[in-house]
Each structure stands twice: as structure tokens, then as C-alpha cells.
Amino acid sequence: MAQTDAPPLYLQIAQQLTELIRNGTLARGEKLPSVRELARQHGVAQTTVVQAYHWLEDARLIVARPRSGFFVAARPVQLPEPSTPRPLRRPREVSVDWLGQRILGRQQPEGMVSFSSGTPGPDLFDVDRVRRAVTRSVQRHRHLLCNYPSSAGHEDARRALARYAVGLGCSLDPQNIMITGGCMDSIALCLRAVTQPGDVVALESPTHFSFLEVLQGLHLRALEIPAHPRHGLSLDALQLALDTQPVKAVMLVPTLSNPLGSCMPLAERKRLAQMATRHDIAVIEDAIYNDLVEVPEMRRAVKSYDTSGHVMLCDSFSKTLAPGLRLGWVEAGRWSDKLRGIKDLQAGGQSAVLELALADLITQAGHAASMRQLRAAVAARMEAVRSTIATHFPQGTRVSDPPGGLLLWVELPRGMDAAALHDLCLPERILVAPGTLFSASGRFRNCLRIGMGGDWTPRHLQALARVGQLACQMTSEMPSRPHGGAATVSLPDAALGASAA
Amino acid sequence: MAQTDAPPLYLQIAQQLTELIRNGTLARGEKLPSVRELARQHGVAQTTVVQAYHWLEDARLIVARPRSGFFVAARPVQLPEPSTPRPLRRPREVSVDWLGQRILGRQQPEGMVSFSSGTPGPDLFDVDRVRRAVTRSVQRHRHLLCNYPSSAGHEDARRALARYAVGLGCSLDPQNIMITGGCMDSIALCLRAVTQPGDVVALESPTHFSFLEVLQGLHLRALEIPAHPRHGLSLDALQLALDTQPVKAVMLVPTLSNPLGSCMPLAERKRLAQMATRHDIAVIEDAIYNDLVEVPEMRRAVKSYDTSGHVMLCDSFSKTLAPGLRLGWVEAGRWSDKLRGIKDLQAGGQSAVLELALADLITQAGHAASMRQLRAAVAARMEAVRSTIATHFPQGTRVSDPPGGLLLWVELPRGMDAAALHDLCLPERILVAPGTLFSASGRFRNCLRIGMGGDWTPRHLQALARVGQLACQMTSEMPSRPHGGAATVSLPDAALGASAA
To answer: Which residue in the set B101, B145, B345 is minimally distant from A344, CB to CB?
Structure first.
């Protein structure tokens, strides 16, 4: 499955241009050569240049202006990045905070300006494309409404998922793909296949709140491995853990991890797959954000480096297409039969008409363009939020700078208590998630996760500015940076480019 | 919740007529008084008489002939009923037969004439009614496709289920109803709420194969309580078990149990609810077949007698509307909060557009008529099957006579091995389920379950006759009863009335 070829032509061109932008040769706002011109210069097809420009657009390094061409993008807000936690020695029993369930539960509280969701709201999804696909599927496959579905999922849908997985760098057998009730359902099935109650599971620190929930539900112990805000799980720390602890599985989000937004470098992904083989442990890979990352290489799954079936790939389209379909999928490698048995024993299948609607959606010609649009909208929103944080939060605040997704990790100045800030925000009907929710050991007291999903409104940036003010009051000092500038409060959709310094 | 009023007027009339039919005053084929006439005689409204006649029709005691009126039905085939097993002393670890998973799995094997399914096939369901409801729901509630659903289920759907539950004799608070991925999902959630691995759960013997599967999946032990072929679970035997064993829960199908088709008398239902309160154990009631029973009183759930919240009601519409929706529901009584917590922790919600389509379907004006049609079609098929068994199976065969549903329990003469019969049938591409699959302790070796669901074809009655022949060959004697008669092989849909002796 591993591919070690040289990068494709378009990527070589994109990387050259990236270098020129990074070192200032191509300055902010400068117009790039036309597609035709660059194609001639490099002696390649124009489509190759278009591909390279799309890559750079995705990476937010250039912007397209209709009927004018491509321009070097304004540099987004620069803020220091959060720190990496130190390793912990022991696994912990998980006891999930009820507060976390209230803040991070899937039902957004009414009448609150909430920063709890990392899932795009219906305003960012193409609701009508989804509706048409479902209606068509119900019409065509109506007899499936009145039959028990296959517990593994409809064969045509599994084939579509295998085709989709090529985009993750994986060549999977549809027979080994199982459709589930969502990504967390996939992950819970994987954990049940490879662990017994009391076993130790290693995960990123900070980690996804739902990972802690599922570990608690299955009576598993969490071993928190430090994660770097840009590069994710530290494999050196993991190696140490594997050498000293009875770890049964590692669960992680290699691409746009939740809450950090980190992306594990490809070389590390390969190393992780090799570590799993060597130590005979399972890697449970959550690929739910892979379509949201702006750097196409980062879509490549750890699973693509797996030669021994030790990587279990879990995924769904709840962050990119339609959370309301309640569908996910899993390829469980060497544990595929075991997983199938567990699913047969207890859960049964999903609605086949929805499975086939999903298959239709992910194989439609317009899907890639739809993902591109989604990423652009999400990126615009994120810049607006980072600007607001830069302007309104106390001096010394650090913020993650993820290449996509709808989550930011905010590290407040040392000594600040994010739970107290949460309490201050609550009477103002503003909901933020304190960092301790993302750890089984009470870490990250001075951190916040800011989610930009759910029902996002113009009020959100105002509310975030207010959170910053409250934080400043808590530190009894206002930020010394000048206020105002281009960031401030504006409609998120209008924010791309508006955050230029 | 308990109601102890006198029976309603229509029921008093129906019961009087039942008596007259049973004692021969009204003979087979005799015409009943017209609705108008009977209404005048009793001094009641004509609608009351119509209701009484519908009840008698449901009970297969009378038949309606278009433009002629109502007639006393031909008496269905009389066969001795199966015996009741003796109680077992100890709970057993469950280890489900892989053969069972192959035979009884939800995917029907290709190219086989299968008697493994107890679920109506698409020929018996109103596929277009379901399709229209789903399409309408997707159209109206498209925004729900792109939102995470509530894990408990959409509020409107839960309200519809509470209204539906009135027909089961229950007055439930929609806030305590949770929508699940199916009836077995409901049951698994209940078991997880009230047991720990290793605990003892009492169930009917013989029992539903999936009950054994779910116990195995949760590492629970099964204590088999004898069940009577007509009256179901023996409460005396259960009482003995509760007095001597650490039983945590009782799981049962009070109405049309699987595989016996037994219905627990109402007085026993009340007694069971009281026993649960007294012993502080959970009763997990599976009401999935309640709409298929021909005697309306038997639709009343054990839950309707529950005054202390010890009965957990599990249900779905997979046997009556559309198994492909993958929706069930549960009211977990005093364990409602615990159940909600478990569901939140792990599974999340179902597709809300499907939930609302279901809500639409069960509250439509035509739903009751649709259920009546389904019951009539199912009853016709069952009579044809019982006739075939009477004609072709060895002398000494006993068969259940359930008031509805698509399952028959066949007890072959003592000493016969149903597993060997299964093996003889297999090369002829006929699939029957041996009785041992319905026990955790290898009982019922001389029994078969005959399911009349799935893709039912004219070949099925021929194949069943062949199973009988093979069974006769096994006993080295042909049946001494004369062959032929009206039963024999005929299209199932034409069989109502054709089975007259």
C-alpha cells in the first residue's frame, strides 16, 4: 500500500511557488503568472498548473479573483502557538465531566452563543445536494426500506467507500469495509474488538472529549501522550509508553486532531504504522477531518502505510456532508472478522437507502468542488476568529493555527483558570469549553477550545470579543496591543482577506 | 396505569358471539346477522357492531365476503400443541452456535428456499406508503439531514410514539421515550443499564435466538424458564428462580413470543409486573409483535401494569412497517436516566428524517387498516403452512397455533433429530432452523422453527412438504393419516378458507 514515488508534477510546481511566497520573492498581493504562461514556462499542461494553483489556494497562500487571476494572499494573523504538555507516567481511569456532556453534547443549548461545536452547521453544508441524493435513493431503492439491511452495509455503498479511500492513499477491499452508525460507532467497535475492560489505551493529550466518553463507557484506562500543536502525537513519547506500559491500542486523529488541529507529518505516519506492527498493537485512526485539511498530502491516512493490518481506519462524513445521515465506516485490518462478529451480535445494519444516498454523494462529479467550497468558507471563518482573539484576548495568549477545520485551541496566560472564565461567560449566555474537558487528568486548566461550528451567527465574533474582555478583566490587565485594526467584528463570510494587517 | 374497567360494549358482543361459535350454535359457514340487525337487537350503535365484527375477523372466527356479509369461518387445522419443557436449575453461559448465525442471520442466503425468517417480506409490507412518508419527511425536514440529531430522538417522533403506546395500554411521557436503532438495540441498552458482565438473566425457553446473541455479547448468563406454547413464560417457574437465583432481569416477548408464538394472559402480565416490583428486578419486554396479534387485548403490554417503573418496554416497527428504517424505541422506567447516559456516551442518535417519517406512518389515519390487512395476509399464509405440516409431517408431530405472527414451532416425534433433518434438507436447497438454536443448553433437539417471512414464494409450500417427506423417511414410516384433502400445496394468498376439512 505504501507509495514512495516522487511528488507529482503539479505538487513540484506548487512547492516551488510556496517557497517563493514564504521567502518573500512573491510579495503579498502580487499577481501570479497566468495559467497559460506558467504552463509554457514549465513545459506542462495547463491543467497541471490549475491543479498547482488549487493546491496553493487550499493552503491559503494564494487567492483567486474572478476575471483577474491569482494573487498572493495576505498573510493571516500571526500568534504564538500553544505549548506541548509533558508526558504522564500512568494511565488514568476515565471519569467524564458531566459539565463536558452539557457543553459538548450534540444538542446545542437554546438561546446561547455557543463555541462548543466543531461541526459545520447547515449554513456550510450543501443541504439541497444531500436532500436530492436521499430522495433519489429512496425512490430508486424503495424495496430496501422494507428489508433488513446487511449488517456490514450495502455492497454498492462499500464499493463507493473503497473508491473514496483511494483519496486517503488507501487501497481497500470493499469486503473488509463495514458501514456503521457514525465515526464514534466505528471507534467503539474497534475498541471492543481489541480490548477488554481495564486495558490501557494511549491517546493524544489534549484529546477528543468523545474519546474519553467512549473509554469510560467501555471501562478502559487512558494513557495520555503529549501532542504538539502542529505535529500531533509525539511518537517518541509513545515509544516510551509502549516500552513501559501494557498499551493495547493507540487512538488518534492524525489529520486536524481535535482539539489541537495538529497534522502528523507523513514520515511520522509511516513510523506509527511500523510501531504498531512491531509492538503488535492496534492503531485506531480517526480520519473524519481529512477532507477539511487544506494541504492535500495531509489527507493521506496512517492506514496507507499499514502493511500488517494493524491500523483500523474509522471515518464518516458528518463533518463534511451531512451529520444527520448518521453513517460512518471502518476498515479494521486484521480485526475485520472480529469486528463483523461484534456488529452482527448486537447492532445490525444501518438504513440501506441512506447508505446508497451517501455512496451517490461521495462519487458525484461535483463532490471535490463542494469540499473545496466548504474548506474556503471554513478558512474564512477561522481567520476572522483568530483576528478577534489576537485583538481582544489578554497578552500572552497563544492560539493554534490549524490548516483547516473548525476548532482552535487557545492557551491563556499561565495561571488563568479557563473554568472560571467559562463561569463568567455563562450569565452572558456565552458558552466556551474549558481545556480540562480534553484530558482525563485535569490538565489544560488555562486552555479553551473554540469551536466555530453549529449555528454560526454575526453575534459570535462579538461574543468572542466579550470572552476576551472577560479574560482580560480576570488578569486585571487589558492587552497592551493596540485595539482596532482590520480584525475586529465583521461577518465571517466577508472575512477572507479582510484580516490583512 | 392499570385499568380494571368492565370490557367495552363491542367486546362484550364479540365475546358472546365467540361463545356461540365455539359451542357450535353458529355453525361453520353460517351467515351472521347483518350489522343493522345486530345493532337493533343489542340496542347499540352500528359502529359498535362493526367493531365487534372486526374483532372476530381478527380472531379468525368470522370472515367478511364482499357484498354478502359476515360468515362463520371454517375451523383451521387442528393439531396437537407442543409440550412445555421442564425447568432448569442453573444459569448457563451463552455460546451461540455459528450455525445459528448462518441460518438466522438477517441476510437470507441466495438460492435457498428458506424458512428462517419471521419478518414479513416486502410483498407483505406497504412499500409505497413507506416510500411516500420518507420522501415527504426528507422534503419537509431537509435541514435535519445536516444537523446532528438528538441522541434520544426527535421530540415530535417521541410524542408520536407516546400516542402509539396508548394502543399498548400504556400512558408514557414522551420525555422518557428514547428512539434507538431497532428493538434489539433497545434491548441491549436495557441490559447494559441493569446488568454487569456475569449477571444472570431469566428468559423464556425456547427463546429468541437474538436474545442469546445479545447475552453472549454482553457476557451475561442465561437462566431458561419453561414457556407454555400458548401462555408463554411460566410465572411459577420464574418465582422459583427468583427465590433461588441472583436474577437481575427477565427478558421476554409476552405477545407472540419467538419462537413459540405464545401470548401471556393479561392476569399473568399483571402478576409479572408485580413480581418485578417485589423482587426489584427489571422486566425487559419486547413488544415487537404486538400489532401482529389477532386478539386485540393481547396488544396490551406488561408495561401497562407497571406502577413502579420496573418494566422496560422495547419495541420497533420492523415486523409491521419497514425493517429498513432501522428504528426502534424504548421506555426504560426507573432506568431511563441511566439508559440515556449510556446512549449519549456511545451511540448518538438516529437519522431524524427517518424518525419523523416513522412518526408520520404510525399516526396516519390508514395505519390501523394497513395493520388489519397485514394480519389477514399473515393468517392466510399460516393456515396454509399448518395444513401442509398436518398433511406431510410424520404422525406424532405437534405444532403451535399462535394467534398471529409468522413463526411456527414444530415438535417432531420424540427421538427425532432436527439438526439431522436440517442436514438432509440442505442439499435440496431448503433451510430450516433446528430447535437447539433457541436454547443455551442444547434443548429442543426434536424441534424446528418454521418462519414464514422473507421472500415467500409458491415454492415454499412444496419445499415444506418435502421437509415433511424427509422427516417421514427419517422415522422410516410414512404418516398413516390420509394424504390429499384441501390442505396440500397451494398459493399462500389463496389459502384463507381453503384449509377447511
So the answer is: B101
